[in-house]
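Why do we bother with holo predictions? Because pocket geometry can differ from the apo form. Keep that in mind while you read this record for phenylalanine.
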Amino acid sequence: MNDIIQQVEQLRQEAEASLAQAKNTEAIRTWHSDYLGRKGRLTALLRVLGSLSNEERPRVGKVINEAKIALEQAVQERQEALARAEMEAARSAERVDVTLPGRPQTLGKLHPTSMTLREIYAIFTAMGFQIYDSPEVETDEYNFQLLNMPPGHPARDMWDTFYTTTPELILRTHTSPGPIHAMREYAPEPIRVILPGKVYRYEQVTARSESMFYQVEGLAVGKHITFCDLKGVLTNFANQMYGEGRETRFRKSYFPFTEPSVEMDIDCVLCNRKGCPVCKYTGWLEILGAGMVHPTVLQYGGYDPSEFSGFAFGMGPDRIALQKYGIDDIRYFFTNDARLFERV
Ligand code: PHE
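The structure, written out:
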């Protein structure tokens, strides 16, 4: 009897040692059938019970049962520990290092001209102006003739023109044909519109001039519109665009489609009239051309000039952006170099 009890003890120790060596689920399964399975070694010892006496049987049976329970518990614990370790290994293999610094996103920005255009829209729409779209490809008639410049008129030389292979069809040299479209659409209603867009000039490209740039045209037509309205609207615009207290100056000028014609300057935003390279030491910056719509042009637009009057203006938002952000070369605007945006 003692012999069997000793065998059980030995088997138990051996089983425990072997269990500690089992490194994965597969090894545990083998271990289980070796010791606790139907043909296992502990199960085999149970069969010996039959050959024992009635006194011995319960004692030996108890020892074997205890060994069985202990081993079953041991294998369960081992199994759980292994499963945990396997899970841990899988987890650390897939781990994402959240402490790794992210790649910085380069944020987009609006083009300086777009920013300037939006400011212009906001200021004029608040004064009741609507935005009116008109074509970039125009006829000679709209770009010149209806603006009081018949063929051969010397003032046409003010706008170097891109012609197309289609006779009469040109790229507009200014946004001034737009008001003709607007007047012909709305006459005889009163009008307050701004007309933004690209214009094209057959000019040498330099730091100060591009062959394509933006203009914003403005037009107000109605009864009793005077030069005071023109000055009031444009001075208000200057104060909102460049800051309250801005001084404006109107100089006489000439455009065939306005009479009288003026150019508006503001005191230089950079030097406050002391004189600097941006204002070419004059203390003033030229901002726009303007004037009272010529009676002939009103008539072409469908308005009776004895009843109606109006004012018009045209400005270059690219140039305004150049001055505002202190950029010294207009060519940067179209070269797609993102360093431009570090300035604005
Ligand atoms: N179209 C003129 C230019 O391109 C500007 C202008 C617009 C002047 C409207 C007076 C009135 O120079």
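The chain is about 40% helix and 20% strand.
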